[in-house]
Amino acid sequence: MAILIDPPRPEAHGRRWSHLVSDASLAELHDFARRVGIPERGFEGDHYDVPEERYSAVVAAGALPTPPRDLIRALRDSGLRMQKRKGDKGIARVRGVAFVDGTSADVDLIRSDREADGSRVFAAMAFVRDAAGDFAVVHSVRRAEWGAPGGWREPGESLRENAVREVREETGLVVEEAALRPVGYERFHSRSSGGLWREGHDLLQVYVVDLPTRRPPMTAELDDTSDRRWVTWTELVELCSDLFWWPMAEATLSPRAG
After folding, report:
1. Where are the alpha helices (DSSP H) in 147-225?
2. Considering the entire predicted model, what is its pTM?
3. 233 three-state secondary structure
4. Taking the domains of the chain in order of start, what are their residue ranges?
5. Which terminus, N or C, of the chain has the lesser number of Cβ atoms within 10 Å?
6. Whole-angstrom distance, CA of residue 245 vs CA of residue 111
């Protein structure tokens, strides 16, 4: 295993930057970044951005100077490379997520204020937040866990229609499509046969919608959820922080999120 860094070249925010990667393990990469004092906000899903003035110190700490082309090849060969659009930010790759239907997948969590490619989206979800900053959660019968309202996309639906329908069916709340704010998407890399996702149809769109009132009453149109409630951020952490999608919520909803 090795930690690799390319020369500082790409310019952004008036500075030049290097990319720091591992050729084998994100855990190894995170450990190295902590040891040399690279902040967590510099992580981009498969690499850390390192400002030019830190380059020499990072090399002195053990990172191997590597030409950009070789660094990208090593990242790709490791299986750690996270594909994303320019301007999107990788949050995490969660490996070996097991689902109740017996399928499993590695899931990339990607932050973005742009909607994903609709031709690739099979489902949508929405974090619903009230005027006081509390969140609507529902208890899924199928998954036996709490989470934000969301579900599979029906034929002919737009991404926003998908999210609006799921919010209405699972909470009784009626939200406008225009009020939905895209905050990211999940990409599923299947580890097994079956499942709704497949190559080229492997994204779940994530929205946030803010309501103008505090804790409006909730109901349900269908029986796929067994309960629903309003929770504070602290209660949301207690209910959901062990679920695979939690890094997305923390990156986009946390009081500390930028």
Report:
1. 159-171
2. 0.86
3. helix
4. 3-78, 89-253
5. C
6. 12
DSSP codes, 126-160: EEEE-TTS-EEEEEETTTTEEE-SEEEPPTT--HH
Element (H, E) at 221: none
Distances (CA, A) of 78 to 14, 81, 174: 31, 7, 45
**Residues 130, 143 contacting (CB under 8 angstroms):** no
Spatial CB neighbours of 236, under 8 Å, sequence gap ≥ 6: 135, 137, 249, 253
Q: Is 208 helix (H, G, I), strand (E, B) or coil?
A: strand
Tell me the Ramachandran region of residue 192: left when phi exceeds 0, alpha when psi lies from -120 to 50, beta otherwise: beta
Select 89-253's CATH number: 3.40.50.300, 3.10.450.50, 3.90.1150.30, 3.90.79.10. 3.90.79.10
User: For residue 21, which of 85, 68, 83 has the smallest C-alpha distance?
Assistant: 68
Task: Give the position of tokens 């109901």.
Answer: 219
Q: At what angle do helices 233-240 and 246-253 cross, to 10 degrees?
A: 160
Tokens, residue 182: 């895209």
Q: What tokens does 130 get?
A: 């009230």
Token digits of residue 97:
């997520």
